[in-house]
Design goal:
Layout: H1 14-27, H2 31-34, E1 39-41, E2 46-48, E3 55-61, H3 67-78, E4 81-84, H4 85-94, H5 100-109, H6 115-127, E5 133-137, H7 143-153, E6 159-164, H8 167-176, H9 186-209, E7 213-217, H10 222-236
Parallel strand pairs: 3-5, 3-6, 4-5, 6-7
Antiparallel strand pairs: 1-2
Helix pairs in contact: 3-10, 4-5, 6-7, 8-9
Bound molecules: adenosine-5'-triphosphate (ATP), the ligand Nc1ccn([C@H]2C[C@H](O)[C@@H](COP(=O)(O)O)O2)c(=O)n1 and magnesium ion.
């Protein structure tokens, strides 16, 4: 079980703090992102490998914006573990869990499942994985999702990707998806677009204000989009040791 040291900053000496600022300027990351896979040991004030915390990327965008497609590419190239909130919920439906019928009707209507259910599924998936870097796809969809995650997991994401795509393109992609999803029909898509604009955009704005957002142009071919995503993760492969 991993956990993040909540009050890291007071433990960082002023010289380290200056160094972190220089690194942030040079690499475009903040101090928290740099410490995302190693946390300070509060007793010794040093870096402890025994209490690693995972690097978490939230992957956001409207329905059909290409989140799942690009996550597959990121997994192939950078070895992340992909957790799709939608897939976790659909698995609950197919396993006939106690929440299955509620989840099914919520997804059919294009609405959002209560955060307590989704956050629990994500928490379990993280805790039962050996991975130290996750893509959490399609989550948080609402401010309520975001706050519930931060409360339960005790951490914010390290970075957030947002695939920005015009509505007409998203609708076209969803209606051509042909994977048998119950929400891939014009009525549900219209509702999902409404929910995205009303409830998800505020989350995206929140992370933008925090300097964690990477807005990616979600138009063009899958390859073209991945070439916009690649530099974000390529930069993460240069660890800075303190
Ligand atoms: N750049 C692209 N150009 C054309 N089609 C694409 C592109 N990227 C993905 N697609 C296709 O569009 C459909 C939707 O993509 P994807 O499932 O990745 O979107 P998503 O953001 O995960 O959607 P949802 O939120 O509904 O799960 C899929 O059929 C996918 O193959
Ligand atoms: N945080 C989430 C994620 C997904 N859902 C529900 C509602 C979505 O329309 C549906 C499909 O998700 P997708 O595969 O498109 O990411 O699942 C939710 O309620 N809360
Ligand atoms: Mg998807």
């Amino acid at each position: 079980m991993w956990r993040r040291v909540a009050s890291l900053s007071p433990l960082v000496s002023s010289s380290k703090s200056r160094l972190l600022n220089q690194v942030q300027v040079a690499y475009g990351f903040n101090a928290w992102q740099m410490f995302s896979t190693q946390v300070l040991n509060p007793v010794e004030g040093g870096v402890s490998d025994s209490r690693r915390t995972p690097f978490v990327t939230f992957v956001l965008g409207g329905p059909g914006s290409g989140k799942g497609t690009q996550c597959t590419r990121i997994v192939e190239t950078f070895g992340f573990t992909h957790l799709s909130a939608g897939d976790l919920l659909r698995r609950e439906i197919s396993s006939n869990s106690e929440n299955g019928s509620m989840i099914l009707s919520t997804i059919k209507e294009g609405k959002i499942v209560p955060s307590v259910v989704t956050v629990q599924l994500i928490q379990k998936a993280i805790e039962t994985s050996d991975s130290d870097k996750f893509l959490i796809d399609g989550f948080p969809r609402t401010e309520e999702n975001r706050i519930a995650y931060e409360r339960v997991i005790g951490a914010e994401p390290d970075i957030v990707l947002f695939f920005d795509c015009p509505e007409e393109e998203m609708v076209k992609r969803v209606l051509n998806r042909n994977q048998g999803r119950i929400d891939d029909n014009i009525d549900t898509v219209k509702e999902r677009l409404k929910v995205f604009a009303e409830l998800n955009l505020p989350v995206i704005k929140h992370y933008s204000k925090k300097g964690k957002l990477y807005k990616i142009d979600g138009t063009g071919s899958e390859d073209e989009i991945f070439e916009r995503v690649r530099p974000v993760f390529a930069a993460l492969r240069y660890p800075v040791l303190f």
